[in-house]
Write a structure and sequence with these properties.
The N and C termini lie far apart (about 50 Å). This protein is about 40% helix and about 30% strand. The chain has a domain at about 65-225: Rossmann fold (3-Layer(aba) Sandwich), CATH 3.40.50. By secondary structure, the protein is α/β, with parallel strands linked by helices. α1 (about 5-15) runs antiparallel to α6 (about 115-130) and α4 packs parallel to α5 (about 100-105).
Length: about 230
């Protein structure tokens, strides 16, 4: 099946469940269109009215929008020397897949993952539209990550907003990252986010800022193997 045929098939499938729209962005001088759910506010409203309070937070469709953190991480991927062609890459919580698409443009071997199957369909469509590549797509639950494969680089965009998720996310790092591998993580400078980096330090990970703006900071994170 050609790239165009794959895009049309995904658009038809998603169009049956969402009002599709496009956000236009400049990615390192490249004008791109990111497929998204045009009716994001309506989706949030329906979910709020449908779900009970205990399930609400985990089920809110945050992934239907392009967030500043994903743009910041995508630019680091495109401009930096962190991904060589052929590098094995896993994006955790890929949402619409913009960061995965940036990694595809760098000719990395990309796997997009999310706990929401529809997010993976959007991610595949955006990678196809932006980079002409159909990445592997996997449903991954941080509470039960697969142990069949490790990756040289993990990409994480705006994932540390809930302290209850910190330890499961760090467990994913341990299971999914190759020895000597790197996590690239973007975080929108929340006060809550500082707790995650405190936790990183406690359990033996080292990190450094590699890109900073008023809105978002991108970090490189690696396991500390010192004594």
């Amino acid at each position: 099946m050609s790239v165009i045929q794959k895009i049309e098939k995904l658009r038809e499938e998603l169009g049956g469940r969402y009002q599709l729209g496009y956000e236009r962005h400049n990615l390192c001088g490249r004008q791109i269109s990111v497929a998204c759910a045009e009716d994001a506010e309506a989706l949030f409203s329906r979910r709020i009215h449908r779900d009970d309070l205990d399930r609400l937070e985990s089920n809110l469709p945050y992934w239907v929008c392009v967030w500043s953190s994903s743009l910041a991480l995508s630019r680091v991927v495109m401009n930096g020397n962190y991904l060589a062609a052929g590098t094995s890459v896993l994006e955790l919580g890929c949402g619409l897949g913009l960061v995965s698409a940036a990694a595809c443009l760098k000719r990395a071997r990309v796997t997009a993952s999310d706990c929401q199957p529809d997010a993976l369909l959007f991610a595949r469509m955006n990678c196809l539209q932006i980079a002409g590549i159909d990445p592997e797509a996997r449903v991954i639950d941080w509470g039960d990550p697969p142990e069949d494969r490790r990756y040289a680089t993990l990409l994480c965009s705006d994932l540390v907003y809930d302290p209850l998720s910190y330890d499961p996310l760090l467990a994913c790092f341990e299971i999914l990252l190759e020895t000597g591998g790197r996590v690239l993580l973007s975080e929108p400078n929340r006060e809550m986010g500082r707790l995650f980096f405190d936790r990183l330090d406690e359990v033996g990970w080292v990190f450094e800022e590699i890109s900073e703006s008023e809105d978002v900071t991108v970090y490189s994170i690696q396991r500390s193997y010192r004594g």
